[in-house]
Each structure stands twice: as C-alpha cells, then as structure tokens.
Design goal:
alpha+beta; 3 strands; 3 helices
Length: 65
C-alpha cells in the first residue's frame, strides 16, 4: 500500500495540538491595518482552534499529522 500524500498548502497552515485538535492563524492581519483597532489586531495575533465544521476536511488533507 503506498503512502498517502499530505496537502502541502494545508501542512503549512495547520498544526496539531497536544490535545489532538488543530490550530491555525487568524486572517485579516496582512494589510490595511491602519483602520483596524489595536485591540482587534492584538486578538488576531494568537492562534485559533479550527472550527468543528472544518476539522474533518483538514484531517483528510493531513493524514499523518
């Protein structure tokens, strides 16, 4: 049986947590930052847990993570 390939785009964006969940980074942090409040930008810094509705598809893209 051949090995399954990981989706390389997904491998760069998602990491496995110690508890088995998946984490990723927030969007909206690249440009046009002047109109966003300091609080909003600070909260976008931290990693977020992948929503439950997307976990199945992310796990499918990362078979060995």
């Amino acid at each position: 049986m051949p090995k399954l390939k990981s989706n390389r785009g997904a491998a760069k964006r998602f990491k496995r947590r110690g508890s088995g969940g998946l984490k990723c980074h927030h969007s909206h942090r690249r440009h046009i930052l002047t109109k966003k409040t300091t609080k909003r930008k600070r909260q976008l810094r931290s990693a977020m847990v992948v929503p439950a509705s997307d976990v199945v598809s992310v796990k499918q893209m990362l078979p060995y993570s």
